[in-house]
Protein: ABC transporter ATP-binding protein
Amino acid sequence: MILEIKNLKKVYGDKTVVNIEYLQIAEGETVGLVGNNGAGKTTFFRMLLDLIRPSEGSVLSKGENVMQTDAWKDYTASFLDEGFLIDYLTPEEYFIFIGSLHNLSQADVSAYLSRYTEFFNGEIINSGKYIRDFSKGNQNKVGIAAALMQNPEFLVLDEPFANLDPTTQIRLKTILRSLKSERRLTTFISSHDLNHVTDVCDRIILLEKGLVIKDFMKDENSLKELEEYFSE
Ligand SMILES: Nc1ncnc2c1ncn2[C@@H]1O[C@H](COP(=O)(O)OP(=O)(O)OP(=O)(O)O)[C@@H](O)[C@H]1O
Structure:
């Protein structure tokens, strides 16, 4: 079991924004987290990654509490928002820096980047610009590519399709599918885009006011069911 959540709660003031009794994610699953604004998706992801402390409960990665160990950091990669970037670097400098944290040489990083030319669509590499000068969509591309470069077993992405152009959205889905089939990558992604989520995920978790309202395996009716749920 790559991830196990036990009685996880986050309380701000008198408001419980995440309240998940039990949840587990197995190796190789692609799980989509959906829910309206304020449902608690980002807060939940931040607790998964030990970026904020839960008020109660625990997150176990391969059986170890993420608050008490570091081993999970070797096989987990994530991109939640631009806060993960270093905006006064160029994308190349940023990739080299992230690579150096994961024992990748400059040659390894260049080899990796050359495989992602299509994903970058000519806009990221050799642009001579700092990350801060890129559009939000292109900043997202840098963050997602840096996460993938770490060759993770477990990938967490918060709204990866937002701000990406349709071509890149489709390319990202293709990349996620091939990493799943080639390397059994486990992916946990949040999204407001029900089409993309049902397209790429094999399991969908619906969060509302911090609670898991639905947790089901995707089938051919899932998109319609989700659309009905959200139109009520
Ligand atoms: N630091 C904080 N202090 C107080 N309340 C917070 C804090 N962080 C988040 N919240 C509240 O927690 C709730 C959940 O927010 P969160 O960002 O996790 O939702 P979300 O599902 O990711 O929403 P969105 O789809 O808009 O990104 C919201 O009501 C938010 O206002």
